């Protein structure tokens, strides 16, 4: 079945093309069902050969499609190994649920078919990225993912905020893409190829530590753009201006996982660059902490979840930095389930509340939205790290791997533990303000449960958010063993005694309970605390990072563009226009000479001849 893996990418591309060209004729809801069916079909086609890989009876294979850039030796090939299998199933599985959900959520939108065309394109782009067998093909998917996110974040482009958010995401990610391009140049200069197998098999004999450090730091710049790490995280909070299913797709199954995936795929290179590992881990934990602190003060339900994603991505990046690649990918997987559930649940709430997104105007929705309440409750406990929900197992593994490094790394472990407390706090705050307490609805709002097309995906995601963590526990490291072929040659993180592992797990669990208890006590009451002054208002504004970026980079850039425009208009254009004006005036002056009369021309030529003869006589003294 691996010979048919190309269909996994082709089907969403066909769905995108059909909806883009014929969508208006197909209409609603059939355009949505088409988008769902092609992605679900991709999941089924991928799941069949994935079974042997999951069972451990199939070796990684490379499927050749066609020769792409022969002069550089670049082939269009698919790498089918445990890592690409996992991400393909996540992208198509979670993606198909989001497509199904969108059929109900986008009901009545005048651009309904185009929305599903863009969703299909997003899925296809991410599949190209995760199935790539070399950096060149991966970069194609990388760029297409950026394009797709722009189209979907700014889908409601008539809203100035949505249009601005789309442009912001596009520009910030281009900064990260610069890092990817330079890294690819260095890789090709060192290896003469972009092929993963060749690069990873020969890296130790080809790369010096300095070159490996340069390449991995540049790759991390790219990952910081896609996976929203300091300093390139600023696009992701604004990305929630797109429709809620877009937020779910970006935060759970596509865009933001790309950077973590790319670094995990490049694990062999990162292992050769210890300085890069320290930088990556430090940036990851600081990003996780900053985003968690900001999330505590947000009142927009989707904005809380956006900063939550940044924070959880920080955990994954921390895992890559400490060399716990399997742990990072494990948290990526569990996060895909509970974050998709949280965003889709938030969309169900917003749908019920007539597009209201402020948690201060919600409350008391538990009985009105029973399915949404129950499923989001599962996601709340999962992301908070409560035993035995999935987030407990994956987050704890990252913290344990950081602790095992010892020495100065223990500071990063402590910060990671603080992030766990904050995560439980702000997620409990979201859950209580949304579903519990008294009703704070505006007049005329009549909340109601979402249709089955929206609630069925919530239930399925809730099952995985609860149970998927059991695939990798200290008693049974099934997930790590599954990924071993993808990380062949990469050493395992330092092992800990069982007693230490369980002690760390208890500490992490107690931290989560403390965060929940603090938030429960503060918010589960009739009168909400005032949180609009001082530190709260500063955190609400994201500590004004956007404003600082505007002053330091955007404003000087605008002034530079204005200056360049003036130089172009008055300098370059001025010279060009001056030459043109001189030629035009000379032509005007000579215009009377062109009378069109032959006798006149003959007379002028005769006169010119006489003048020439006289000049020769005078100057030359005769013939």
Structural write-up:
By secondary structure, the chain is mostly helical. Among the domains are: 273-341 and 352-540, no CATH class; 550-620, no CATH class. The chain is 73% helix and 3% strand. It contains 24 helices and two strands. It has a two-stranded antiparallel sheet with strand order 1-2. The chain is globular, with a radius of gyration of 30 Å.
Short description:
A two-stranded antiparallel ribbon has the order 1-2. The chain has helices spanning 6-26, 30-55, 82-105, 112-131, 135-153, 160-191, 196-206, 209-226, 235-238, 244-253, 255-265, 267-271, 274-297, 301-321, 325-352, 370-384, 390-405, 409-435, 452-467, 478-483, 498-523, 534-540, 545-590, 598-620; strands at 61-69, 74-80. The protein is mainly α and 623 residues long.
């Amino acid at each position: 079945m691996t010979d048919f893996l190309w269909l996994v990418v082709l089907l969403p591309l066909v769905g995108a093309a059909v909806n883009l060209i014929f969508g208006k004729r197909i209409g609603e809801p059939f355009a949505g069902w088409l988008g769902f069916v092609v992605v679900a079909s991709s999941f089924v086609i991928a799941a069949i050969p994935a079974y042997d890989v999951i069972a451990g009876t199939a070796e990684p294979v490379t499927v050749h499609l066609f020769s792409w850039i022969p002069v550089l030796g670049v082939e269009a090939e698919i790498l089918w190994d445990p890592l690409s299998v996992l991400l393909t199933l996540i992208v198509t599985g979670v993606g198909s649920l989001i497509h199904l959900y969108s059929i109900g959520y986008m009901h009545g939108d005048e651009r309904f078919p185009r929305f599903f065309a863009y969703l299909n394109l997003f899925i296809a782009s991410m599949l190209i990225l995760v199935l790539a067998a070399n950096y060149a093909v991966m970069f194609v998917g990388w760029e297409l993912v950026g394009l797709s996110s722009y189209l979907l974040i700014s889908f409601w482009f008539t809203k100035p905020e949505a249009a601005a958010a789309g442009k912001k995401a596009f520009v910030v990610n281009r900064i990260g893409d610069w890092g990817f391009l330079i890294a690819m140049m260095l890789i090709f200069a060192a290896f003469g190829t972009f092929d993963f197998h060749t690069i990873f098999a020969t890296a130790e004999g080809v790369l010096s530590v300095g070159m490996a450090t340069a390449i991995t730091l540049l790759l991390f710049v790219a990952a910081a753009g896609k996976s929203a790490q300091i300093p390139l995280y600023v696009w992701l909070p604004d990305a929630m201006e797109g429709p809620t299913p877009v937020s779910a797709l970006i935060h759970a199954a596509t865009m933001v996982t790309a950077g973590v995936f790319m670094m995990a795929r490049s694990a062999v290179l990162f292992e050769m660059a210890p300085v890069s590992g320290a930088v990556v881990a430090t940036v990851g934990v600081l990003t996780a902490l900053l985003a968690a602190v900001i999330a505590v003060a947000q009142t927009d339900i989707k904005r809380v979840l956006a900063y939550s994603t940044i924070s959880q991505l920080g955990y994954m990046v921390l895992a890559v930095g400490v060399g716990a690649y399997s742990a990072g990918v494990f948290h990526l997987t569990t996060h895909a389930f509970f974050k998709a559930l949280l965003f889709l649940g938030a969309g169900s709430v917003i749908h019920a509340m007539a597009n209201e997104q402020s948690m201060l105007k919600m409350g008391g929705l538990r009985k009105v939205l029973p399915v949404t309440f129950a499923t989001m409750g599962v996601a709340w406990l999962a992301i908070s790290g409560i035993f035995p929900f999935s987030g407990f197992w994956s987050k704890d593994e990252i913290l344990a791997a950081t602790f095992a490094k010892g020495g100065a790394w223990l500071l990063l472990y402590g910060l990671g533990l603080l992030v766990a407390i904050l995560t439980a706090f702000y997620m409990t705050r979201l859950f209580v303000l949304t579903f519990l307490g008294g009703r704070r609805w505006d007049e005329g709002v009549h909340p109601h449960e979402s249709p089955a097309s929206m609630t069925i995906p919530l239930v399925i995601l809730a099952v995985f958010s609860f149970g998927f963590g059991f695939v990798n526990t200290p008693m049974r490291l099934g997930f790590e063993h599954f990924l071993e072929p993808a990380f062949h040659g990469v050493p395992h993180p330092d092992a800990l005694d069982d007693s230490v592992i369980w002690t760390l797990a208890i500490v992490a669990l107690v931290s989560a309970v403390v965060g929940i208890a603090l938030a429960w006590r503060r918010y589960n009451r009739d009168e909400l605390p005032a949180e609009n002054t001082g530190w709260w208002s500063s955190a609400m504004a994201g500590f004004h990072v956007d404003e600082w970026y505007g002053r330091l980079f955007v404003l000087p850039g605008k002034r530079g563009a204005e200056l360049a425009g003036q130089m172009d208009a008055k300098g370059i254009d001025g010279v060009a226009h001056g030459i043109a004006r001189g030629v035009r005036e000379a032509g005007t002056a000579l215009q009377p000479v062109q009378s069109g009369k032959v006798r006149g021309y003959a007379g002028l030529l005769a006169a010119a001849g006489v003048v020439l003869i006289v000049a020769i006589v005078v100057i030359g003294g005769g013939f």
